[in-house]
């Protein structure tokens, strides 16, 4: 029976997330190192730790909604055609405001010549300079322009004007996954549903780690619900990329009849002392300032699964300092359903995975040795065929209105000031900066990512 029939769950703490201001120690690799499927297949030959191996299959990203029987490949245009050169902010018309942050806003826009919908992130240069967030904009553009995965939101275009930076990404009609969770009875999912969504995030993190990228801010607010019901990871401004990703290796487990596993831990070969993330999802090593690696993503996955199953995060305090103290010192507890005759709570297998993900010693945390393969091999994911995950029917299909551009799954957001987006969009692109200009955004190049149609067999 669903949790909606149970006695009330423990009261959930406030769902206002507090974003920790990133340290200025964060470094950024601005080289445009693509991490497409072709590059993954062209990586140096793995160092095999056994005589058995399995081929790496290319990842098949989402098709566009109107092309339900095809998939796409993406490439960055280094030499745009004349038509592509004309594509600028003025090529779009505003429909509505989807969300806003401290340095910018996200609008639902329509491309005038073909009617395609995009989520256009508009970032204020003035605010980014004032808040010292220039590197974050570069990080997001660089990473989004290089990745290609069905569970990561695609970037289609990026450009700039005199006062703003623009990132045109896929519009996910389901909105934030956080809002979808809030609408569920008890703010929880049944275990099978939570397993499905956790598996999609494991697949996304595995791919990012293969590319040498540590996400560092996994939470429901940074996950979008595609109109198909699948999840897409978004908001890469706190992510960091290793200057040179290592080559993956293939290892075998000691279990009989087990398939070889791909070791992704060595790919994201970096360690940083940056203090970034969202407080309820921060790993202990980040708070202590010990430096952190890709294992922080597995800690955040544990918090994410816990929140899907119980409706709140496990270490939330009444203040930021108390939350940090609980993360470091408090043992992991689970709500007691022993007296509930209608619902026994999540399984012991689910609790086992959460405990392993939320191990306070990062060297003993699941995923710290061989990366995603360790996590995927846990018994909790035994019902999941990761190779067919994209073809499975998702538990939640976003509501659709008669007007497809109504964005019914987004909360109504009011403009904080009068902002004529169309006037801003009509502004010409910024001219190339000279040495005297000292333009901090000079390297924020325009990118056009092609989605070539390849018919499925």
UniProtKB/TrEMBL annotation:
UniProt keyword Nucleotide-binding, yes or no: yes
UniProt-recorded Gene Ontology molecular function terms: ATP binding; protein serine/threonine kinase activity
CDD domains, A to Z: STKc_phototropin_like
UniProt-listed InterPro entries: Kinase-like_dom_sf, Prot_kinase_dom
Keyword Translocase on entry: no
Top-rank EC class of the record's enzyme: transferase
Coiled-coil portions: none
Documented EC number(s): 2.7.11.1
Chain segments carrying region Disordered: 45-87, 424-443
Keywords: ATP-binding, Kinase, Nucleotide-binding, Phosphoprotein, Serine/threonine-protein kinase, Transferase
Domain Protein kinase, chain residue ranges per copy: 92-381
Known catalytic reactions: L-threonyl-[protein] + ATP = O-phospho-L-threonyl-[protein] + ADP + H(+); L-seryl-[protein] + ATP = O-phospho-L-seryl-[protein] + ADP + H(+)
Family per similarity comment: Belongs to the protein kinase superfamily. AGC Ser/Thr protein kinase family.
PANTHER family in alphabetical order: FLIPPASE KINASE 1-RELATED (PTHR45637)
Protein name: non-specific serine/threonine protein kinase
Organism: Lichtheimia ramosa
């Amino acid at each position: 029976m669903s949790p909606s029939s149970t006695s009330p769950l423990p009261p959930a703490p406030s769902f206002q997330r507090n974003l920790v201001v990133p340290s200025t120690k964060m470094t950024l690799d601005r080289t445009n190192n693509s991490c497409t499927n072709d590059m993954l297949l062209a990586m140096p030959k793995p160092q095999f730790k056994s005589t058995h191996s399995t081929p790496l299959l290319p990842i098949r990203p989402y098709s566009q909604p109107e092309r339900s029987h095809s998939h796409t490949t993406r490439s960055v245009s280094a030499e745009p055609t004349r038509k592509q050169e004309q594509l600028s902010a003025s090529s779009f018309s505003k429909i509505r405001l989807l969300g806003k942050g401290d340095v910018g806003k996200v609008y639902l826009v329509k491309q005038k010549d073909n009617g395609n919908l995009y989520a256009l992130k508009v970032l204020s240069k003035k605010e980014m300079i004032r808040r010292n967030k220039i590197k974050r904009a570069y990080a997001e553009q660089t990473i989004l322009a290089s990745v290609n995965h069905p569970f990561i939101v695609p970037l289609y275009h990026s450009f700039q004007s005199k006062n703003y930076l623009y990132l045109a990404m896929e519009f996910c009609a389901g909105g934030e996954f956080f809002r979808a969770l809030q609408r569920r009875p008890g703010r929880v999912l049944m275990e099978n549903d939570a397993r499905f969504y956790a598996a999609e995030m494991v697949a996304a993190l595995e791919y990012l780690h293969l590319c040498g990228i540590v996400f560092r801010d996994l939470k429901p607010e940074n996950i979008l619900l595609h109109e198909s019901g699948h999840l897409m990871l978004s908001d890469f401004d706190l992510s960091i990329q290793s200057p040179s990703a290592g080559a993956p290796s293939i290892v075998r487990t000691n279990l009989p009849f087990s398939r070889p596993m791909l070791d992704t831990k060595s790919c994201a070969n970096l360690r940083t002392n940056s203090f970034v993330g969202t407080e309820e999802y921060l790993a202990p090593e980040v708070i202590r300032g010990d430096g952190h690696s890709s294992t922080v993503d597995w800690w955040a996955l544990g918090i994410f699964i816990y929140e899907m199953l119980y409706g709140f995060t496990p270490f939330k305090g009444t203040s930021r300092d108390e939350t940090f103290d609980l993360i470091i010192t408090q043992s992991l507890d689970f709500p007691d359903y022993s007296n509930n005759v209608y619902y026994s709570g999540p399984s012991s297998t689910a609790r086992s995975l959460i405990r392993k993900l939320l191990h306070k010693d990062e060297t003993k945390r699941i995923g710290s040795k061989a990366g995603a393969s360790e996590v995927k091999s846990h018994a909790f994911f035994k019902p999941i065929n990761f190779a067919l995950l994209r073809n499975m029917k998702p538990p939640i299909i976003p509501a659709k209105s008669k007007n497809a551009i109504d964005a019914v799954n987004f909360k109504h957001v009011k403009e904080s000031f009068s902002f004529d987006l169309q006037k801003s969009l009509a502004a010409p692109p910024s001219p190339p900066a000279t040495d005297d200009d000292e333009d901090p955004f000079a390297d924020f190049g325009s990118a056009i990512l092609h989605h070539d149609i390849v018919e499925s067999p």
